Structure formats: C-alpha cells, structure tokens
C-alpha cells in the first residue's frame, strides 16, 4: 500500500511469499500470499512494547514487580537492559557480556542508590518512599522500553528451513511459530480446516463445534486479552474454577449478553459439541494440530499465523522452544477459560429449557475445570523462575540420599527441565514422531517440540517427569508449591509418588511431622502406583506382591531416610504405623520393630523400647535389641527399671548379657556394677541360689585378680560379696545350701605356660584344658567369711606392716593375727579350723613378758585394745591387765585336757626361755593340771629351788596334805584309788642336787627333798602293811 514500506520478502519452499512491511509509525507487518491462490493474509505478530503503567499488587513490592517485567525474556533482550543501565549509570557500555544474575544485581544496586539519593527529610520519609521507588523504577523501565523498541525494528527476513520465516531485527532475531488450529479458528481462520485435523465424525456435531468456537472467539473479543489474563491469574489459585466463574458471571454478562445468547442458542447438541471440543483439547491431539496436509489426499492448509517473537539468548534452541511453549500454553489456557465461561453461562441461560441436562453440564464444568487446572499448572511451570538451592546441611543430607545435582544455570524451571532429563525425553518423543529427526531442535521441529513439552508437563500423565526433575535437583520449594497449589485436590495421577515427593519437600523445610503424615498417605496408595513401585521401590511390576506388602516395603525405605537425618520422633510414628499394617510373617517386620526400638532408645523412652522388642518376630533381632536396651539402661543408671521388667521368655538372655558384661568388666574401675545388678535381678525374682552364686563369683574374681596386695577396699568388697552370698543361702532350703563354682586351673597357674601346649610345645589333650568345677558348701562359705573378716582387720590395722594376701590360708591368717596381737580372733580361727593354739599363747606370753619390762603403757594398751580388753581397776597397770588377759585366755581355751596341758606347756616354755619368774597363779593352775610335767620343765631349765618345793608339796599332797591343789583325787589317807608320785623326776632332781651339795643352798634343798622322800616311802610301807592286815582279817 501507499502508507507502508516494503522492508524485505522471501519465497518459501511451499510456494508462499512472505513480505515484511513497515508503516509510517515504524510498526512492522508480516503478510503471506499463496502463489497459487494469489490471496494475501496478514500474519499476527507479537506487538512491540510500549510504555505502560505498572500496577503493583498489595502483596508485592515495587522492585519485585519491575524486576519481573524487565527481566522477562519474552519482552526485553539483554542488550536493551544493558544500554538503559549504562545511560542511568552515566558510564560507557561495557564490551563484556555479563550473566543475567549479575545484570540484575547491577540494576537493583543502581535503583537503590537513586532511591536513597532522592529521599526527602525524615519527617516525610514513610509517606514518600513508595512514591520515589515507583518513580525511579518507572523511569528506568521507560528507558528499557525505548531501547527495546529500537532493538525491535526489523531489517530483514530470512527463511532458513524453507517454510517458516525468521525476522532479523536490530537487536535480536525473531522466530515465528505457527499456532494451533483451535486458536487460529478463534482468531478468525476458516473453521473448515479443523475437519482435517480432529476426528469429528458427525457433520452436525462439527457444525456445532464451529459455532462453539465462533462463540469463544466472540467472547474473547468481548472480554479482551487483559481481562482474560487477569481472570487466568485469579483462577489459577482457586480450588474450584467453575465456582469462581459463577461468582464473576455478572461482570461477564454486562459485556454483551444478548449477542452471546444468540450464539449459544444456535448450538444444537451441546453435549456432543462439548465432548468433541474436549476431545480436541486432549494432549494427544497436539501432535495433529501443527500438521500440514502434505499427502496426496490431504488438503493443504493455506494459512499459518506466526504470532510470537522469540528473543534469542545464549541457548537459541531451548529458549525458542520455551518461549513458544509459553505462548502456546497461554493461548490454550485462555481457550479453556473461555470454554468454562460458556459452559457456566449455558448452564445459567438454559436452566429451564435443559433441566434434564443440569447434571451433565455440571459434569462438563468439572471436566473443563480439570483442563483449566492442567494448563494453569503448565503455565506456571513454563514461566516460573528457577529457585536458588543453598548448600545447607539438610539439603546436603537429602542430596546425598536420593537427589541429584543442581548445577544448571537456567533461569526458568522449563529451561532447566529441558537441559536435564526433560531434554532427553523430548528427543525420544520427537524420534518416535519423526524418523528424520537428527537430534537438533531447529525451527522446523519446534512445533512438534511444543507438543512433546506439553505431553511431558501434562499433570495427568502419562509421566511425572517434571515433578521428578524438581525432586531430583533439590528444587523443593518449587516442587512443594507445584504440588500443593497447582495440583492440589484435583490431580489424581500417580498420587502415591506425588505425595512421596511432597513429603520430601516438607522434610527439606523442617516440617517433619507433616513429612511423616504425607509419607503415610503415600504409603497407603503405594500398592496401586506403578510410578512409585518402579522408581522408588525398584520392584518389578510383574512381581506378585500384596498391596500391604508394598506399603510396608515403602515405609521401610522411608525409615532409612529419617534415621539418617536422626529424626527419632518421626521414625517412631512411621514405624508404629508400618507395624500396624504389616503381618507377622512380613520380612520387613523385624526391620521396622528394630528401627522403632532404636529411636525409642535414643529418646530414652525405655518402656516403649521394651515393648518394641517383644513386637519383633525375629529372635536374633530381639537379642540384639535386648542387649542394646540393657546397656542403655545401665548407661542411664536406670537399674530399677532394668530389674523390674519381666522379659518373659528372654529372661535367660538378660542374665547372659549381664553375666557377660560382668565377667568382662573391671571390678574396681568399671562405671557399672554388673555383678550387683545381676544380684538384684535374681533377688527380685526370688532366685536366691543364683543370686548367691553371682556374689560368690564376684568375690572369687576379687580374690584372684587382686591376690598380690589387696587393698582395704578390695577386702571390703570381698566381705560384702561373701556376706550377701551367705545371707542369700540362708533363705534357701538347707538341702540346697551349696554352690557350684567353676575353677579355671590357669587362674592359679603362675608359670606363664600356655594352657593349650606343654613345655615341649605339644598340644595338650582336650580334657586337660577344660574347666573344672568345685562344690562349695555353706559351712565353707562361713569359714571363708570368718577368714575374710580377719584379713580385713589386718588390712585396716595401721600398725601391721605385713602384706595380707587376698587368698591367705587359715594358718597364714592365724600367723598374721598373732603377729598383729589379735589374739581373740586367733583363738576363734583355731577353734573354727581346729588349729593348735600353742603359737597363740607363746606370742601372748611374750607380749606379757615385754609388758612387764616396758615403760610404754600406750604400746601395751594398743594391742590390748585390739582384743577388746578394758581395765576395770583404775589403779591397774597395763602389764597387770596383760597378765590377767593371759590368765583368762588360758582358762577359757582348751577344755580338752591334752590341749590344756599343751597350752600351759607352751606358756611355761616361753616363760622359762625368757627366765621370767613364774606367776603364782600360773604355778597354781599348772601344778593342778600336770605337776610332773611342770617339775620336768623346771628341772630342764635348772629351776631347782621351785622344783624341790613342788616335789615336796606334791609328796605331801599324796600323803594327804591339800591334795586338791595338785588335782589329786585320792591320797594315802584314802586308798579307795591308786596314787602315784613322779619318782623319776624326784630321783633326777636328787641326783642334780647331790652333785651340787658343795653349795649350802643346794645341800639344804637336797636334805629336805631326801628326807621328804624317805618319809613318803615309810608312809607307803605303813599304808601297805595296814592294807594287808585288813585284807587278812577279811579272809
């Protein structure tokens, strides 16, 4: 035309002439002409940007909204933003090409500086801050728009693939993408072209479909694009779009209700028509929407409407495909919104006429609402910016479990999806639909790529590749929003797998209880979800497993995640639920019970841990858990709880565990007294025999391991053990008061020889290396207790310098007691073990002799007090008390006559050996017990004077003078019994005295003794004669 200037033109390989025009306002126009038909059609292009007022929502801020618009890749290219930034910074344009993140940071920094510079005084700061921000950002936004307008001026048109042109502009290259035929019809294209693309068999239904699309086109023109965009934003966050449309229907009717009613009234079979259109909206039909008739029987579609300008950045293919998909989804979302409005409007307008269709129309509203939800979700997926994933501890932990890396630099989620697994899946789809696909997404492939992307992003299947991408790349914030907001309630595809990923999001955000309950929801549906079974559980779908088995297996896998994150509370909740669903024979039941046990133990919930043990069907798992419980209770010093549990059939295992720990522990340095605990365990159950055996074993260990130089503490422990042993056995029947104690001969073998080989290195027979046992009776235990008490006294005696062995025998103990002056205890030992008391009396006598010559009464009292002797006479000296103690001891010990004689003889020998004068009381007692022996002993030590006196007194006693003093029961005055006198000792004494008669003293003694013996003999003759006379008289 005369008002347009031709910029460039191209002839495509399909006989179409493309012409690029520019009017007087520099607005570009693209037109196409089929050479055969020779008819020009104008192509709808994206409108160039114009300065506009940016509306700031109440929930957003000024910088946030402007940044969204400025850095929208479909509106601005990087060069325009850089130029605007350079102008505002008043710096020359840099030659480097910064990243989008760096460029955004520079813009924010510049705007903050300008806002701070333009701030007024503090009084009006709050009122004008928003205004200054809006003004500053608007100025920069206007500059960006101006530079973008300049960069958008077309300079040429190319046709690289031979079909669809590419417009070369001053700042970038714009790729034109064909729209689907449904949107094309809504834009005014001949609707008859649809018949070749969609399977509508009935011509009447097809006619009604065209009328319905015309109605949608009219409604779109009435409402306008801006209203549809606002409506799409509002509907995306609604649980029920149909209800929202009902609420907004008044505003829609005000536009042009009468014309809409006319169009709707022309539709005949509304049910079949909506069914046909919904069939066209299926994702599987997208592949057919972009096909052009190239076969011999297919008509050629004459019109293509490129409506989108793709701004090329670093990745032309992906960026172009992403932007094209964004435009396609936006158009399709508007289409389904229009259809939902018409459906709701038809329901209201025809309520009386189609009363029997109300339920059907309502179902259509629900079906259309599903499409609204689906395209809203896809719209968010193609436009949402990719979140930044910080390397926090929880995210690192989750990534180490089951998620992948997040190293992509993509700006949007869809870009990142296509650069990862989504791109591989898209290539597979393109190869399936085109044998000529070479792996490169060029301009000719983009329409099919759009269809593939929609198929991958479709929330209702057949795949969950997009949420799986978010999951595997740690985009948990986006994934949680996508599932909770975009898929909430209406999407029922693979619900278990979706819930599983949502639970991971809660886990990432620290919402652990929500994560547990969501995992439980996922587990309840796991048996019916093939996605979850194949990907997470890694099971063969052909494997025959019951639903509850799959559910339990799922919980088992999830438990590992919580355990690695050390979330004990959540593990318990999940394990309890899993156990309630599992059967006793389930292979995972032991794992579940063990997991619950471990976490209960970690939280110190010992009663719950105890119950978890007995829920476990596996004996080995129960043993392991029981061992852990026992050790934990010991560590927390919950001994009372440990003892009072019943343990049912695992009672023996508890005993074995405690015995093993006791035998492996250091008796003195161990934190836990396992023997005492085991003793309490048996006593609590009334098993006094086992309790006694436990204490005795501890006593034996103390005795063997510390036998060299036992301390007072060791002996005290031994004493307590032995007292406990004896006390327990007293509670047992007399016939069972005995113990069986194992004896390892290597304990007593101190030669460092091998227990398995002899000195020559030859292996010993098996029977020689086996442990033996010994029977310990109750009396033996009492005797051991007595010896131990004595050893304790010795160990506690500060004056005792001798080493007290832990396993000292009764004789050794007696010697130590006597050496330390514990004479009373020594007498008890002698009586108990039937030992000779001579050594005791010898040492006691020696102590008394030294006491007589010593001036240190304190030393004498020190050993007297050891025997619990107190002086009753305030004027008595220590030596007198000592001699009285000796006298008392001699009279108390040794009731057997022979013992009396031997004990006195021992004292006598000691006194004589020290040449100490014999005490009168001692001589008085001794001559009554065994005077001849006394005379012999005195004679041996040359005590001639005392010997002579005793011999004279003894013969007088025989002749009837005080015979009781010598223990004589019959004398010559009473001849009822035979009498005798020690003539051998008297003869020997006379012989000695005779040899010493040259001394006057001994001569006198000799005469006295000799005359007394002669007198004794005469008396014997007289008594014998009288006895014979009486005997003759009787006869």
Notes on the protein architecture:
InterPro entries: Beta-prop_Nup120_160, Nucleoporin_Nup160, NUP160_helical, TPR_NUP160_C, TPR_NUP160_M. This protein is mostly helical. Among the domains are: 1-176, no CATH class; 186-288 and 306-462, no CATH class; 840-929, no CATH class; 932-1034, no CATH class. The chain has a four-stranded antiparallel sheet, with no helix packed on it. It has a three-stranded antiparallel sheet with strand order 5-6-7, with no helix packed on it. Strands 8-9 form a two-stranded antiparallel ribbon. Strand 5 (154-158) and strand 6 form a beta hairpin. Helix 15 packs across helix 16 and helix 35 runs parallel beside helix 37 (838-853). The longest helix has 35 residues, at 1000-1034. The protein is rod-shaped and about 190 Å long. The termini are far apart. Mean pLDDT is 80; it is low at 290-318, 352-356, 393-407 and 746-752.
């Amino acid at each position: 035309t005369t008002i347009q200037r031709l910029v460039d033109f191209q002839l495509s390989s399909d006989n179409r002439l493309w012409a690029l025009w520019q009017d007087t306002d520099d607005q570009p126009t693209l037109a196409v002409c089929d050479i055969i038909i020779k008819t020009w059609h104008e192509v709808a292009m994206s409108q160039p940007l114009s300065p506009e007022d940016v509306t700031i929502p109440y929930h957003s801020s000024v910088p946030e909204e402007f940044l969204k618009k400025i850095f929208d890749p479909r509106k601005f290219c990087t060069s325009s933003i850089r130029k605007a930034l350079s102008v505002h910074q008043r710096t020359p344009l840099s030659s480097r090409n910064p990243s989008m993140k760096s460029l955004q940071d520079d813009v924010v920094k510049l705007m903050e500086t300008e806002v701070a510079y333009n701030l007024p005084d503090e009084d009006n700061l709050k009122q004008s801050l928003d205004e200054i921000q809006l003004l500053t950002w608007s100025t920069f936004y206007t500059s960006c728009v101006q530079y973008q307008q300049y960069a958008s001026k077309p300079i040429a048109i190319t046709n690289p693939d031979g079909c669809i042109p590419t417009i070369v502009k001053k700042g970038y290259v714009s790729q034109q993408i064909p729209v689907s035929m449904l949107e094309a019809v809504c834009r005014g294209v001949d609707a008859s072209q649809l018949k070749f693309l969609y399977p509508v068999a009935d011509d009447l239904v097809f006619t009604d479909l065209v009328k319905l699309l015309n109605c949608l086109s009219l409604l779109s023109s009435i409402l306008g694009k801006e209203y549809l965009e606002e409506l799409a934003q509002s509907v995306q966050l609604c649980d029920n779009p149909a209800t929202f449309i009902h609420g907004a229907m008044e505003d829609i009717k005000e536009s042009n209700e009468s014309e809409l009613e006319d169009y709707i009234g022309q539709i005949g079979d509304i049910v079949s028509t909506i069914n046909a259109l919904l069939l066209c909206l299926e994702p599987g039909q997208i592949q057919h929407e972009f096909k052009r008739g190239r076969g011999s029987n297919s008509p050629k579609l004459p019109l293509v409407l490129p409506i989108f300008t793709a701004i090329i950045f670093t990745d032309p293919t992906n960026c172009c495909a992403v932007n094209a998909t964004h435009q396609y989804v936006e158009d399709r979302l508007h289409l389904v919104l229009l259809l939902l409005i018409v459906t709701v409007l038809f329901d209201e307008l025809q309520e009386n006429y189609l009363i029997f269709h109300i339920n059907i129309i309502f179902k259509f509203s629900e079906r259309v609402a599903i499409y609204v939800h689906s395209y809203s979700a896809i719209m968010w997926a193609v436009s949402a910016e990719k979140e930044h994933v910080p390397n926090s501890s929880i995210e690192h932990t989750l990534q180490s479990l089951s998620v992948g890396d997040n190293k992509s630099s993509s700006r949007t989620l869809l870009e990142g999806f296509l650069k990862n697994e989504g791109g591989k899946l898209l290539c597979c789809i393109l190869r399936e639909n085109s044998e000529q696909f070479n792996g490169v997404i060029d301009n000719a492939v983009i329409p099919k790529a759009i269809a593939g992307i929609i198929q991958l992003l479709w929330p209702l299947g057949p795949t969950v590749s997009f949420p799986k991408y978010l999951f595997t790349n740690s985009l948990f914030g986006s994934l949680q929003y996508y599932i909770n907001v975009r898929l909430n309630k209406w999407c029922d595809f693979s619900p278990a797998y979706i819930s599983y990923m949502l639970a991971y999001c809660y886990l990432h955000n620290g919402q652990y209880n929500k994560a547990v309950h969501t995992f439980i929801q996922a587990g309840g549906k796991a048996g019916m979800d093939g996605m979850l079974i194949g990907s997470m559980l890694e099971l063969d779908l052909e494997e025959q497993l019951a639903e509850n088995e799959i559910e339990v297996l799922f919980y088992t896998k999830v438990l590992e995640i919580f355990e690695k994150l050390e979330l004990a509370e959540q593990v318990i909740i999940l394990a309890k639920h899993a156990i309630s669903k599992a059967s006793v024979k389930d292979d995972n039941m032991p794992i579940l019970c063990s997991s619950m046990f471990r976490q209960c133990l970690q939280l110190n919930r010992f009663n719950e841990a105890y119950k978890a043990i007995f829920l476990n069907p596996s004996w080995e798992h129960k043993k392991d858990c029981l061992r852990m419980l026992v050790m934990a209770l010991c560590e927390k010093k919950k001994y009372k709880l440990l003892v009072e549990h019943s343990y049912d059939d695992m009672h023996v295992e508890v005993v074995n565990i405690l015995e093993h720990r006791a035998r492996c522990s250091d008796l003195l340095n161990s934190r836990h007294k396992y023997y005492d605990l085991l003793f309490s365990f048996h006593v609590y159950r009334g098993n006094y025999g086992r309790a006694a055996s436990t204490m005795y074993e501890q006593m034996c260990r103390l005795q063997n391991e510390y036998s060299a130089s036992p301390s007072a503490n060791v002996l005290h422990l031994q004493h307590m053990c032995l007292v406990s042993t004896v006390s327990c056995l007293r509670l047992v029947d007399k016939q069972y008061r005995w113990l069986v104690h194992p004896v390892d001969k290597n304990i007593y073998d101190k030669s460092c020889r091998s227990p398995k080989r002899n000195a020559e290195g030859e292996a010993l027979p098996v029977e020689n290396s086996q442990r033996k046992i010994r029977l310990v009776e109750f009396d033996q235990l009492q005797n051991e207790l007595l010896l131990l008490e004595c050893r304790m006294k010795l160990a506690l005696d500060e004056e005792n310098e001798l080493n007290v062995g832990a396993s000292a025998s009764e004789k050794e103990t007696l010697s130590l007691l006597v050496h330390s002056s514990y004479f009373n205890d020594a007498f008890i030992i002698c009586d108990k073990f039937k030992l000779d008391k001579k050594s005791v009396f010898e040492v006691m006598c020696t102590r008394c002799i030294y006491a007589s010559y010593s001036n240190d009464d304190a030393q004498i009292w020190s050993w007297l007090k050891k025997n619990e002797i107190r002086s009753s006479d305030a004027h008595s000296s220590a030596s007198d008390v000592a001699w009285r103690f000796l006298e008392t001891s001699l009279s108390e010990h040794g009731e057997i006559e022979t013992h009396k004689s031997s004990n006195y003889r021992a004292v006598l020998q000691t006194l004589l050996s020290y040449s100490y004068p014999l005490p009168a009381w001692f001589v008085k007692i001794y001559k009554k017990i065994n005077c001849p022996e006394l005379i012999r002993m005195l004679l041996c030590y040359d005590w001639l004077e005392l010997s002579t006196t005793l011999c004279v007194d003894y013969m007088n006693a025989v002749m009837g003078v005080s015979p009781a003093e010598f223990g004589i029961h019959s004398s010559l005055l009473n001849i009822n019994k035979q009498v005798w006198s020690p003539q051998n000792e008297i003869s020997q004494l006379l012989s000695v005295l005779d040899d010493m008669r040259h001394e006057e003293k001994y001569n006198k003694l000799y005469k006295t003794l000799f005359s007394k013996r002669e007198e004794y003999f005469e008396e014997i003759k007289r008594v014998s004669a009288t006895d014979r006379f009486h005997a003759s008289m009787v006869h």
